[in-house]
Amino acid sequence: MDGSVASTEEILPPTIQKLMKGYNKYLRPFFGNGPVTVGMSLDIASIDTISEINMDYTATIFLRQRWTDERLCFDGNKSLSLDGRLVELLWVPDTFIVDSKKSFLHDITVENRLIRIFPNGTVLYALRITTTVACSMDLTKYPMDRQTCTLQLESWGYNVKDVVFHWTRGNQSVSGLDHLQLAQYTLEDHYTSESEAVYETGNYPKLIFHFKLKRSILYFILETYVPSSALVVLSWVSFWISQSSVPAQCIGFINPNAANAYMYGQEMQEREDEMNGIVTSIGSRALRARKREEMLSRMGSTSNPTPSESKEDINSSQPQTRCTKCMSTARQIVRCLNCCKVENPHYIDNYSRLTFPLSFIFINLLYWTYYLYF
Which residues fall in a compositionally biased region of kind Polar residues (predicted)? Predict the structure, then answer.
């Protein structure tokens, strides 16, 4: 490694060779004399995707960092722009993106990074990065939801005693948002903040870029709400179609006509009479068994029944009693069903012509009031 650095320094211009002489990239600027201040700014080139399934977004950004290194001061009034590959010769901040799932530095046709040194020792270091960052989303009001995502920058190894981060121009440090075109969102607001990340190993400098997104409802109105409303209106028309025109009914059920209702009632009445006959027969058998039991008890002194016969009578009466209760319950259920019978089914359509649209309007009022104002 030392041989490679030495050979690189030999081909550098005299001014750069002078700067690199005795320079140690492993020591930060102002080592032992307080922290080095690093100013940052962002240029958002694009926000490619925002995924609700993975709860993340993918963005391409230009990250610019500025700091002053007193060891790089030189005489002159013009800055020096160096090849990005010479960054290996200089100390640079160990900045990383918090919550990044995957990131990469663009390298076509060469690595997209820039180094510029000013006469007073200020260093400008710029990178072009594409990163996928986690974003916790609240989807309870989907598709009329609003999301707040962040892009957080921290120092990996230097704590606040060694490095201090700050936005170079406050909220104006982030640019490029005015030209963004997102598929399903519009950018409502954005702002920046500065804080410290507290870990077990110490406190580290932290910069946060916040941006608020609002989902565009027009797409869902055209794709979801309009077709659904059209289907509801079409189903409402069916209440004006004659009941005799069975093929014209386009809803999930067909009302029976008066003749069918009468036949249905007759059938239910026959079933009830049949059940009543079964119950009466069982009741008469139970009555005869009780009379026989009383007669045998009065004749007990002369002709006592055998234990086996008494046991059989008792066992036979118990199932009959349970069966009687079941039949009585079934008869009550049949009577309840007869009470629900519609005398004239034609009235159902008349009532539905009014209740159907009123119910739909009422549900829509509740739906849109909740999603738009709460």
Answer: 299-308
